[in-house]
Amino acid sequence: MKRLLLLLVLVLAAACSRAQPPDKVVSKEDLDFAQQFLSYFPTRDFAAIEQSMDPAMNRTQLRPRLEQIAKAFPPDTPRSVKVVGAQRREGVTTTAIDVTFEYEFPSSWLLAQMSFQRTPAGVIVRTINVKPMPQSLAYQNRFTFAGKGVWHYVFFAAVVLVPAVMGLALFHVFGTPHLPMRWLWALVVLVGVGEASLNWTTNQINVSAMSLRLLGSGYVRANPWAPLVLTTSVPLGAILFFIKRATGFGDWEDEEMGDGRGGMGEGQGTRGNGEAIDPEGRRE
Fold first, then answer.
1. Hey, what domains does the chain have and what are their CATH numbers?
2. Contact between residue 135 and residue 207 where contact means Cβ atoms under 8 Å apart
């Protein structure tokens, strides 16, 4: 029983995953630079902004673009600034960094994303994008059935039922006496084949036939602000076990009984032809 509980704990731990927090993906130096650079927009310090921009950009078109971005920042002081996304890619001589901040203002929210590179010549900002939002990312990507369609209910039901089917199969695996290769069956029934994933926020569906998944279902959320992605698979191992149990369970029962069933046919005090004898060997 202890081994079974340990197996279940390990499987449950593998069923869900969470990526590294975005503020741990990039260095504090990179975060400080990005936040300082974005702070120039509310104050309209375009000279400081242009100093770090890619020199290859068209300067005639750059200033109107920067002014448009600056208008997206509310005049109020933000209540909070959070790192909600980050990515770092190391190159031979350069390092590419993407950082996304979420600004909370008294009556609105703002998403600001910028990409820059650290090169031997210094830091070069490649792109800047801002997006005003009526609600926070955490609220937009919350798990809720409000406004969801039938497909969301069907997919969620599959996510719940697949591990339940596997758990039922595992219960019967350990409840079947003298089951050959019991621990192999215990592993097989907990493996799902293929994978279907649903982004709960964007409704995007991805299907992969060449994959194996322990416990069949799970979820992924990169961070508290990211969309929830549910995944499930086909409980092929559990299905095969139930088919074997329905069509070949008699074979397992025979193995359990062994020769004992034949021995019961000839008890003490009888012969093979059914004649009774007394202890002294006299026939009756």
1. 22-139 (3.10.450.540), 141-257 (no CATH)
2. no
